[in-house]
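Worked example (supplementary).
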Amino acid sequence: LQTDPHSTDYPYYSDYASQITQPCSKLEVRNFTKAFLPVAYSLICIIGLFGNIFVVMTFALYERTKSMTDVYLFNMAIADILFVLTLPLWAVNYAADEWIFGDFICKMTRGIYAINFSCGMLLLAFISVDRYIAIVQATKSFKIRARTLAHSKLICLAVWVSSILISSSSFMYSGSYSFSINETKELCDHRFDGMSESTMLKSLLLWLQVGFGFFIPFIFMIFCYTFIVKSLQQAQNSKRNKAIRVIVLIVAVFLVCQVPYNIVLLIIAVNMGKIDKSCESDKIMAYARYTTEAIAFLHCCVNPVLYAFIGVKFRSYFVKLMKDLWCKRYKKDSKHSSRTNSDIYHSRQTSEILTDNGSSFTI
Amino acid sequence: MTGCSSKSMVLVSLLGLLVLLLCGTSEAQSNQDCCLSYTKVRLPRWALKGYTEQLSSEVCDIPAIIFHTSSGLNACVNPKEGWVKKHLLFLSHRLRKMSA
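After joint prediction of all chains, the assembly is encoded as:
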């Protein structure tokens, strides 16, 4: 066998050694993702759960006259809840640097993640359209809004079904598998087995993610909110300035959260499959991806604050909910729990008196 | 204006159908060790101990063969090159002999 010529050929061989290209070691990046992502994902999960559960509860318990935006917000809160519920699994994945939950949970997690990501983005677009109709097309809006409201269940069903269809590739092409380079390590990721154009498919997926997750809601928002601000500027209304401020805030938060991540995704998509990338720049891209991704995920914690808590009516409902919850506990302690139902009923009646026909969640 | 929301609905659902089988957001991992480029020189056959295959269908972007040298180095090489194919045949032959 060829094991003996060590001593004689060593200088010759060391010449080769200097020219060898080794795999790019991402140990630093792994140390970073091990420390940073579990903390970031847990925080986003907790904050996101709290905010969105309150939106869902307030909506379910107190809201009677629902506007289309309310229905969208309710669905968005549900999508956000499902989305943040997948984050603990990713936190464990990065902390352990391995996928330990098996193939089925991998497919489910990636699927739910993708569905709720696209669902949230579609709903952001629809919310801006609904507000556009309500404010810019105010004269005709009553009829249209009544009609869309009648179909609200159908529209939401369509949003969910199209999100599921959009995300179907995540179910099909993801899985848990042992990494070919290090077979002791299980990964949960896309896998295009037996496909010759897998590099092209990967970059196509990134383009589509940027297109669906960013450009479509972005175009809808810019179009609708530009016209809303224009028509608000013409109106003589005391609440006008506050409304404009809220819109600017919504667009600004969307941009701050989504633009960095989508720029990184675009750069990755453009460079996908190129040979002779430098290890240093690849590491920098990995850091950039994980950091901007966490910022983008933060968006679903901010949504309830932006869309719901800013509304005066929602806040009053929220205060009522907190009071009722507190009373419930208090009454349970003093064994008068049978009263809580009539109590909620009572507060519903009073809240009905307080509401007009507008949205309780919006500006 | 019924047009606006129903038109946009149609637009969105059409786009959704178009990419039905392909699209999907991905939480892809970028923290694994991968070959990013290929070694430009030929490696002598006697220096090789074994090899691993890097599949472009998994987390890494490009297909590659990683030759493990007896001095403990890992060399990324292009699987399409003739000498790599020959070395691979030799290595798998030797492995078969060893396991037999």
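Two points are worth noting when inspecting this output. The radius of gyration of chain B is 23 Å. The longest strand of chain B covers residues 48-54.
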